[in-house]
């Protein structure tokens, strides 16, 4: 058994299927045409990798990338991403000039923000290209529709600010039967119609993935869909979107193997006690990678095409599973998310085990995991 006690180098990584992502983008673009398509890649591309997602999406010719923070936008420019980028979240005073210099667009969510921009550009010939953010019921950020309208009018002949778009965000569309989304769409339609009569080329955007999928009236001139583009559905999967699939897998390799006698405690706290002589495989993935301890509850890993149970508490860097019934060796592939043979472990199962949203499962994966693009 001594020869089994060898460690291999850190072999855990996220595998990204770029062909599937491109396919997802093309399906969405065809369905929404002539509406424009904005792909939000915030929060490290929902854990998939900010640059990796932006690069593939640029090749697939999305119309816009969206990020949450100025830093994400500037990072993408630094890495050579050239297309339109919109910063959705609040921009600090000192970030305004760098964003404009890098040709990034950003949100203005209050008349106060517009004042700050004017102040920054006082002695400059630069022009900020902005999207006014309107609150139609999310109660997070954004102006009331009437405030947005008067700010829009005020900025119509302003030299330092060009209002290129106006947008709002849906709060309830992931529950398509809830009547609230219709009210948000109505409120936004009123404002969008008015602004289009003043400025026909203005970009109006409201829909997230759920809006795109379940409310065709929410599409306007652009949609902002992240979760769907990555292959996931906030609620049911409509027929038209059947070919949209995840492009994300989490893979590793068995790093250690040993036989443990009956009655032995496994991992911290000995929360799991073997009820038989058990062959234990160690896989070098843990909560330090974003594979949270909650995923261990009735959790499984794919090895040799079979689902095997995780045993004991998940550690920061490693977890253990019961491979008694398998003929395995150190270095054999372990799939924690995604397919192996004809079996698959889904993000949704993990979200349920941890009682969190699948968005949170994805966004939790840390920088320690390498992103490998296929
Ligand atoms: C994150 C975000 C989106 C994308 O939401 P998905 O559900 O992933 O499509 C769209 N708009 C705003 C303002 C967001 O913050």
Description:
- With 374 residues, the chain is an alpha/beta fold.
- It has eleven helices and 20 strands.
- The strands form three sheets. Strands 1, 10, 11, 14, 15, 16, 17, 18, 19 and 20 form a ten-stranded mixed beta sheet that branches. An eight-stranded parallel beta sheet has the order 8-7-6-5-4-3-2-9. A two-stranded antiparallel ribbon has the order 12-13.
- Strand 15 and strand 16 form a beta hairpin.
- Helix 7 packs parallel to helix 8.
- It is elongated, with a radius of gyration of 24 Å.
- The two termini are 36 Å apart.
- It binds pyridoxal-5'-phosphate.
- Pyridoxal-5'-phosphate binds next to loops.
| Fraction in beta strands | 15-25%
Q: How many separate helices?
A: 11
List bound small molecules.
pyridoxal-5'-phosphate
Radius of gyration computed on alpha carbons: 24 Å
Instruction: Categorize the overall geometry.
Output: elongated
**Low-confidence region ranges:** none
State the share of residues found in helices, binned by percent. Answer: 25-40%
What structural class should be given to the helix and strand makeup? alpha/beta
Quote the average pLDDT.
95
Structure summary, number of beta strands: 20
The largest β sheet comes out as: 10 strands, mixed
């Amino acid at each position: 058994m001594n020869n089994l006690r060898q460690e291999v180098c850190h072999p855990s990584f996220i595998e990204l299927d770029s062909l599937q992502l491109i396919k997802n983008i093309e399906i969405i673009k065809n369905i929404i045409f002539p509406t424009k398509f904005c792909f939000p890649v915030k929060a490290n591309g929902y854990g998939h990798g900010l640059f990796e997602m932006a690069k593939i999406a640029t090749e697939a010719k999305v119309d816009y990338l969206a990020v949450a923070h100025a830093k994400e936008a500037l990072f993408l420019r630094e890495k050579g991403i050239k297309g339109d980028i919109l910063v959705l979240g609040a921009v600090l005073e000192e970030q305004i000039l760098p964003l404009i210099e890098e040709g990034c667009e950003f949100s203005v969510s209050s008349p106060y923000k517009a004042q700050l921009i004017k102040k920054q550009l006082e002695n400059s010939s630069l022009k900020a290209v902005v999207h006014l953010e309107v609150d139609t019921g999310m109660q997070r950020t954004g102006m009331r529709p009437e405030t947005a309208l008067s700010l829009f009018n005020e900025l119509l002949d302003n030299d330092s600010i060009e209002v290129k778009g106006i947008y709002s965000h849906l709060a309830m569309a992931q529950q398509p039967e809830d009547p609230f989304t219709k009210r948000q769409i109505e409120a936004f339609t009123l404002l969008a119609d008015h602004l289009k009569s003043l400025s026909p080329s203005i970009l109006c955007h409201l829909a997230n993935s759920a809006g795109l999928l379940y409310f065709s009236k929410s599409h306007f001139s652009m949609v902002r869909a992240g979760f769907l583009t990555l292959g996931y559905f906030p609620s049911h999967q409509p027929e038209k979107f059947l070919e949209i699939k995840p492009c994300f897998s989490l893979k590793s390799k068995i790093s250690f193997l040993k036989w443990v006698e009956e009655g032995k405690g496994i991992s911290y706290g000995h929360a799991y006690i073997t009820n038989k002589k058990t062959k234990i495989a160690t896989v070098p993935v843990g909560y330090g990678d974003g594979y949270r301890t909650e995923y261990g509850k009735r959790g499984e890993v794919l090895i040799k095409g079979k689902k095997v149970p995780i045993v004991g508490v998940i550690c920061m860097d490693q977890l253990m599973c019961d491979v008694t019934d398998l003929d395995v060796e150190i270095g054999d592939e372990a799939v924690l998310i995604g397919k192996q043979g004809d079996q698959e472990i889904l993000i949704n199962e993990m979200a349920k085990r941890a009682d969190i949203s699948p968005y949170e499962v994805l966004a939790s994966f840390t920088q320690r995991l390498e992103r490998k693009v296929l």
